[in-house]
Write a structure and sequence with these properties.
By secondary structure, the protein is of the alpha+beta class. It has three domains: 174 residues, FAD/NAD(P)-binding domain (3-Layer(bba) Sandwich), CATH 3.50.50; 105 residues, protoporphyrinogen ix oxidase, domain 3 (Orthogonal Bundle); 113 residues, Protoporphyrinogen oxidase, mitochondrial, domain 2 (Polyamine Oxidase, Chain A, domain 2). Helix content is 35%, strand content 21%. The protein has a seven-stranded mixed β-sheet. A five-stranded parallel β-sheet has the order 12-2-1-16-22.
Length: 483
């Protein structure tokens, strides 16, 4: 019996993981013939890197969550467990009330769980501290009752005050997603917060219960993040090599222009590129939802509409090479966040949203003579960087870094990467939209979608999404024999 042929459109981490699972990661080797089509001239999507001054530097995610198992498991399966690295520094700061201050301890994704720790940090004024403290002595009741979802920002603001949201919650949660917590889904982004919404007591007490238990004093804390010694994007290199070893066909520079149902007796799907039309028994679309919507428009208009409802933010990352000894030695942790409400000395809003001390964060980037600093800019409602050239953007952010740190930052080697329409926004009721998308996709034979737009933007979530899509297609193709 001829092996079924599955076509995967999209060569980011989700699509490559789907191909990996199809080709033997969770099935007998050779169960399917697989073709991966990627429109760019390289694989990896947002897992990318550049070489600056001889160092390979991630321009997308520089690490991944350790508490989710998917990425660590994949590294182990690829024989790269010994390449895993933990951060060389702990903690972070926030630019608050005109200066850099260490983040309050015992935060839960930006939500304070200890009023005393919040007070000691100095990040809030006394009126804002007193407002937050009311949550402990006279918590405000939630008048809405049980809800399937709600916006993170307004709920926390009702409990702890708007200043806590603007100073801590929005920079942290909003920064991760390049969005705003004013309309961000608690059900998808922060489920413990949604659970806490059903408790009319103190939000700080409720969120403290969902923090992981502190390890014994003689036990080092579990790592929060991992990277790989040769850059996090090297995970794509490892995955690519394994897929080739398994006989997966991978074509870059292959822009898919159309998909359709195949004629009876020839397969299930046709996938058209400028150079050829492929026929497959199964199809996985691991593409951003605007692309996916265009591709499925002729096959399922309702699915295309659901996909089009998800919008995206654009961001840029700028890496500066700074001579050692220039930056202050008393810097705290791995970097700092800059709230949208923060203002420069001239009254203007900062262009930068975050600064990462890359050489401190990841030991493999440490050098005796230079330091690497990464600045991030851009959000769903802030596209100022798109009107600037790379030179203008680099100069502006170097100037902001000098103001934030109080030292002059000399010009030097740098790298700018722009990620246009790269961060899907998880707005309120996102889970319902995804349920509709996945139900519509499941109504078509041997078809699935995966990627960052559905169940999480991080590397582990995308890996899990790719495996789930592969399992769904295999279930239909192989009659439930594999999962």
């Amino acid at each position: 019996m001829e092996r079924p042929h599955v076509i995967v459109v999209g060569g980011g981490i989700a699509g490559l993981t789907a191909a990996y699972a199809l080709s033997g990661g969770a099935t007998p080797d050779g169960a399917c013939a697989i073709t991966v089509l990627e429109r760019d001239d390289r694989l990896g999507g947002k897992l990318a890197s550049v070489t600056v001054e001889g160092q390979r530097i991630d321009t997308g995610p520089d690490g991944f969550l350790a508490r989710r198992p998917e990425a660590v498991t994949l590294c182990r399966e690829l024989g790269a467990e010994d390449q895993l690295e933990i951060p060389g520094a702990l903690g972070a700061s926030i630019f608050a009330r005109g200066k850099l201050r260490a983040m309050p301890s015992r935060l839960n994704l930006g939500v304070p769980t200890s009023w005393r720790a919040l007070a000691r940090s100095g990040v809030l004024s006394w009126p804002a501290l007193l407002r937050a403290g009311l949550d402990l002595v006279a918590p405000r009741r939630d008048l809405r009752g049980p809800l399937g979802d709600r916006a993170i920002g307004p709920f926390v603001a009702r409990k702890l005050g708007r200043t806590v949201v603007a100073t801590l919650v929005d920079p942290m949660i909003g920064g991760i997603h390049a969005g705003r917590v004013a309309d961000m889904s608690a059900a998808v982004v922060f489920p413990p917060l949604l659970a806490a919404a059903g408790d009319n007591g103190s939000l700080m007490h409720a969120m403290a219960k969902s923090l992981p238990a502190a390890p014994p004093s003689d036990t080092p804390p579990a790592p929060v993040f991992h990277a790989l010694h040769d850059s996090t994007s090297s995970l794509i290199d490892l995955l690519h090599a394994e897929l080739l070893r398994r006989g997966v066909t991978i074509t870059t520079g292959a822009s898919v222009t159309a998909i359709d149902r195949a004629p009876l007796g020839t397969g299930t799907w046709t996938v058209t590129t400028p150079s050829e039309t492929l026929v497959g028994d199964g199809l996985i679309l691991a593409t951003p939802t605007p692309v996916t919507a265009q591709l499925v428009a002729e096959v399922d208009h309702e699915l295309a509409g659901l996909l089009s409802a998800i919008d995206y933010a654009s961001v840029a990352t700028i890496t500066l090479v700074v001579p050692s000894g220039v930056l202050p030695e008393d810097r705290h942790g791995t970097g700092f966040l800059i709230p949208a409400i923060a203002r420069r000395r001239n009254g203007a809003a900062f262009l930068a949203s975050a600064v990462t001390w890359m050489s401190r964060k990841w030991p493999h980037l440490s050098r005796p003579d230079t330091e690497l600093v990464r600045l991030s800019t851009g959000r769903i409602d802030d596209r100022r960087f798109t009107t600037m050239t790379d030179l203008e953007l680099t100069a502006a952010l170097r100037d902001e870094l000098a103001e934030l740190t109080g030292v002059s930052i000399p010009a030097g080697p740098s790298s700018v990467t722009r990620w246009m329409d790269a961060f899907p926004q998880y707005r309120v009721n996102h889970a319902l939209r995804v349920q509709g998308i996945e139900a519509a996709a499941a109504s078509h034979p041997s078809f699935a979608v995966c990627g960052a737009a559905y169940h999480g933007i991080g590397i582990p979530a995308c890996i899990g999404s790719g495996r789930t899509a592969a399992a769904a297609v295999l279930e239909q193709l192989l009659g439930g024999a594999q999962s």
